[in-house]
Amino acid sequence: MFYLNPFVYNQPRYYVHYCSPMDHYLYNIQKHLNEMNEYGQPKPKVAKKKEEPKDNGNEYIQNQKRYEILHHKDYVEEHHEESTDFDGNKHIVFRRQLGNRWYEREIFINSEGKESTKESWHNIPDQEIESFKEEWNVLHGIKPEPKKELENKSEEKLKQIKENEIKIICDKAIEILQEEPNLVHLEAPITVCGDIHGQFYDLLELFQIGGNTPITNYLFLGDYVDRGYNSIETILYFMLLKILYPDRITLLRGNHECQQITMQYGFYEECRRKYNSINVWKYCCRVFNTLPLAALIENRIFCVHGGLSPSLEKLDELMKLHRVKEIEHEGVISDILWSDPEEDIEGYRISPRGAGFLFGGDAVSKFVETNKLDCVVRAHQLVLEGYKIMFDNKLFTVWSAPNYCYRCGNVASIMEVDEDLEKDFKVFEATTNEEKQTPVIKDLPEYFL
User: Fold this and answer.
1) Sign of CA dihedral 378, 379, 380, 384
2) Please, which residues bridge with residue 191 across strands?
3) What is the pTM of this model?
4) By the 8 A CB rule, do 94 and 133 touch?
5) How far apart are the first and last CA of the chain?
6) How far is residue 205 from each of residues 201, 305, 382, 412, measured CA to CA in Å?
7) DSSP-derived 3-state class of residue 353
8) Separation in Å, CA 420 to CA 297, 300, 395
């Protein structure tokens, strides 16, 4: 017969092996010896104090659940052969093996050293029952019932924050962001990150690569929403980090942090779909208007979302701008959020995006020399390799959204700047998390690349 022999100490946990008649005989002798005192007399039985029944409906539900598991048709294989177990009764195989396993664990694995009796069968935790069910299925070739897949798996997995709570988070974030200047001065070491675009699970992967806040000091260059499926979760996560660690994470404004763009590229629709209201979208847009425009690391590295502007010669001019408003179609703010570098041109040209400019290497060199900088770091532009270095190491593009729009197949990167202002890029791929879901993406705009 097969059952768990608790007197074989070197057996693995939950191991069921063949028990010989001699083993069974020695088991019964040891059982009776345990029931005798040092004089060979039976130990007096102490009457157990009856516990008052608890008025708890959950206890009834748990007991009923265990009963259904132990007597389910898939698991109740009634073997009416005479059992040679020590109690000599007929048992259901599943229940007996499950009880023996739990009995063995209670006696020999209990950290407190408290022995339990066979009554512990009725107190087996649900997780133990579920674990043994899986082993039973494999042993007897029973296929478990397939779990029903959720239509919006990621929305169900991510707990949705209430609308009134989002308003509180946004109001607190605005209080902190309003105190920051247009040009934020930062110290090294620091990690610079590019576009995220609502790819929440890839953002979590980014923190795994670069380190969590507040251990790592972060600078994000904007474009937190749109395109991806979890823009709400992404921007709220950033706000909470800013509230908790305002001096360890800096959030700049990107061209997607405005009402007009978010209405066209996904964030507005996501807010309306998840909350049946546009209030969340309005709260977040108020936060967007307060985000700083640029950052300066150790007075040597200028960081901005897009690029340069022909109307901006010195960094001090940024401090004179009024930023708490919607992004206008023209002007310095629009230019530094929309512009792109181009290797084959000189000076500035009209951008095919419809906003901002294209600027060449000579414009970058002039801007760097005028402001006594080492280089310019920006995001805004998809790079299949995750980052790009241009104009004799004077301009760096960092892209942090892997497999952009769930279809581009690109890698992403973060740029670590140490105390000596040396730069090191860490490249990572899109997460394989099964909980995320690919959104339905409409036609891409002209400025996609």
Assistant:
1) positive
2) 218, 416
3) 0.65
4) no
5) 70
6) 6, 22, 19, 11
7) coil
8) 11, 11, 18
Which pLDDT value is given to residue 106?
Answer: 46
Structure tokens at 170: 């946004």
What is the distance between the alpha carbons of residues 371 and 142, in angstroms, rounded to a whole number?
72
How far apart are the C-alpha atoms of 293 and 52, rounded to whole Å?
Answer: 67
pLDDT per residue as tens digits for the range 257-316: 999 999 999 999 999 999 999 999 999 999 999 999 999 999 999 999 999 999 999 999
What is the Cα–Cα distance from 366 to 391, expressed in whole angstroms?
12
Nearest to 249 by CA among 186, 294, 339, 315: 186
Q: Tell me what pLDDT residue 133 has.
A: 67
305: which 2 tokens? Answer: 């979302």
Provide the residue count of the chain.
449
Instruction: Quote the CA–CA distance of 214 and 216 in Å, as a whole number.
Output: 5
* pLDDT score of 186: 97
Question: How big, in percent rounded to 5, are the helix, strand and coil portions of the chain?
Answer: 35, 15, 50
Dmax over CA atoms of the chain, in Å, equals 105
Find out whether 449 and 351 touch, Cβ atoms under 8 Å: no
CA distances to 307, 335, 342, 354, 362 from 358, rounded to whole Å, are 9, 10, 6, 11, 12
Quick: pLDDT tens for 382-391: 999 999 999 9
Task: Copy the structure tokens of residue 71.
Answer: 């007597």
Provide the token pair at 193. Answer: 């990150």
Give CA–CA dist 11/19, Å, rounded.
13
> Which range is most confident: 107-111, 269-273, 443-447?
269-273
144 vs 408 pLDDT, higher one: 408
CA atoms within 13 A on the CB side of 215: 6
Using alpha carbons, list the distances in angstroms from residue 291 to 178, 179, 261, 371: 8, 10, 16, 23
Q: Is the pLDDT of residue 154 over 50?
A: no
Q: Which residue numbers are catalytic?
A: 256
**Phi, then psi, of 304 in degrees rounded to 5:** -155, 165
Structural domains in the chain plus CATH codes: 2-43+55-140 (no CATH), 153-448 (3.60.21.10)
Residue 34 pLDDT > 80: no
CB atoms within 10 A of CB 361: 18
Q: Which amino acid is at 144?
A: P
